[in-house]
Specification:
By secondary structure, the chain is α/β, with parallel strands linked by helices. Helix content is 47%, strand content 20%. The chain contains 13 helices and eleven strands. It has an eight-stranded mixed barrel with strand order 3-4-6-7-8-9-10-11, surrounded by five helices. Strands 1-2 form a two-stranded parallel sheet. Helix 4 packs parallel to helix 6. The radius of gyration is 21 Å and the shape is globular. The model has no long low-confidence stretch (mean pLDDT 93). The chain binds ligand C2E and calcium ion (2 copies). One calcium ion binds next to loops.
Amino acid sequence: ITPSIGYCRHPGDGDDPAMLLRHADQAMYQAKQQGRNRVVAYREEFGVQASERLALVSQLRDALQAGQFALAFQLQFDQQRRPVGMEALLRWQHPERGLLTPDAFIAVCEDSGLIVPIGRWVLREAARHHRILVAHGWGHLRLAVNVSAAQFQQGLVDDVLAVLQEFQLPAGILELELTESVVMASPDHVIRDMATLRDAGVCIAIDDFGTGYSSLAYLKRLPLHRVKLDRSFVQDLGRDPDDEAICDAIIRMAQRLGLCTTAEGVETDLQWNWLAAHGCEELQGYLFARPAPFEDVLALLDRPGGT
Ligand code: C2E
Ligand code: CA
Ligand code: CA
């Protein structure tokens, strides 16, 4: 078990039970924020942070209605630098703070439950672009969408099946990226849903592989297609023999299990060469393409001579 414990003291941190409980709760929230599995004592500034968080939740709730969310797409390539797909990445056009990337708001979406409606929007919005890709002769490109654990508990399978139908997505076009923790959190139920999705032609990738807790025994049982090698391992390829050993081991293991590997965060030729030489099939990173609005990605694809 990895408990998150928050506490406060009487009388210093509050005079009445309601206030004490609220403060202990704010301290517990901090313990979760700091990565769980820890004890945190209440401090006054938590109150400010808690009200900021509440404000953020209410802004996020409005953002969906107000059409402030957008998707950026980042192309993925094969070893020969031919495009094979793209990952949809959520952006928030905040009325005062400008364009925000997910690290500024995704954690709050997750623990407020807002990730469910927002994730549903992302799925539909990404799928909608398939038609446009088809019209430009890029209909074979995969569309990858990140999904959170809460979405699995709240009707993800039905949402995905509806989207496949609505946008007439052929098998193998939609890919869902799940982190290890999503799968390990409620394995049996998730495995059943994943099998349903696979049978409907959806590909499933494990995101940030190697950074969480995985059971290798589960990997074998899961209806997976792909492992995404985390950026933290890719970063030091060609420099750090330990990271090279980890990447090599993950790629080989994936191959033996019949899974594809996509490396994330590829930024240098050195990393690209190393990955290609070690059998990593697909690559994603700033070296090839940055996340960009769909129109820009399309322009890049359509450019004579390609990407
Ligand atoms: P991720 O799934 O690991 O996505 C890849 C992140 O790495 C993206 O950050 C991307 O911009 C960044 N990246 C790509 N190539 C490079 C590179 O070469 N170098 C460096 N330094 N970074 C690179 P972004 O867009 O800020 O997304 C952060 C995370 O937010 C994602 O990590 C994903 O976990 C989450 N996220 C994004 N969109 C969604 C969504 O629609 N739903 C959910 N549940 N999570 C999302
Ligand atoms: Ca991802
Ligand atoms: Ca990732």
